[in-house]
Amino acid sequence: MWAPVTALCLKHTQPITSRGGARTSGTFLYVAWGSNQNPGDRTRRLDRRRLLGLAAVVGSSGLLAGCVVSDPAISGGPGTPPQIPIPTPALDGALTAYGLELALAGQLGALLALPGLPAGQRSRLQLVQAGHQRHAIAMAGPDPTNRSTTQPTPAPSGGDTTLPGLGSDPARALTMLTQQEGGAARFYRRCALASLGPTALLWGSLSAAAQQAGAAIAQTSPVTTSPARAPAPLPTVSDTEAAQQLLAQLHAVVWGYRRSMSALPRTGAAFARAASSLAQRMGLRDQITALLSQRGASVPAAKPAYRMPADPNTEAHVANALMTMEQALLPYAGQWLGSAATTQVTPALTALSDSGLAAVGWGAPPSTWPGWPD
Q: Does the predicted model carry a pTM greater than 0.85?
């Protein structure tokens, strides 16, 4: 931070580990996009009501193509050849994400093949496509939270996802792809809400990245990117320490928004967008302040003033300053999500999503892993 503060349904039988550590087996109905993996860290049984509700969410974006129920038969006995182990990611839901990210990367490739796209928009589409490809590689690894950049050999088997074709009309294709990115973001959000620790941040980052992608692909301004950095581990802090560090940054961001908005016409769209983001940051600031007070922890106080990353004397300078602030806030929101207790996962995930969308809205390129320290 800037100074001075720094759809496929399938019947599947698998071993289940209970909270007490006992291992049993059971047959459950899972919902996933072409996967036999259960999203999230906690295996959940889907009753009819939850299944219908989930189908309504993803079905609206064209991502739930059908439902197939099968009863796998296993035959054995003398002379039965041993099965060859097929490598699959260890994290529940990772195989689904692997297939989905590959499918989205393929959609971007199809869109990039269409003629008539502005150069700036084409550069953004290429950036989003590369992000999906990196996500797929990470989700194929034995521990996706390490966010490996090396494709495992052989590649995981299964998880194939087929998305509706985008067609040949660029405008319609962009609309469809935006909807598909939104469907992915919602799927990943559900996985994050069922997780804790680095796994929650992994899913939350994927959700925020899909949201950023959906917002960025329609933008036509040129984008400047920095070379990708090696994945950095999540810092080890308590949820209280993470909340305190995020609050210190929020004080600076709130001050920066107020300072920047003074240079914007009060009737313009930029002012309205800034006012909306400011209200979100102030609400989060007050929420974390109350949380720390309830715990009896120290509450970082706001400083009288902060140094802006850019002098906000024009609308372009305001956009650059607010973009920089929101980008700098993302790792603190991610750190809170990665250390949050169960009751704080939802506000932490919302904080990450809000800052990610705001950053892209002010002109930032979409991040591959929003919320991680790299």
A: no
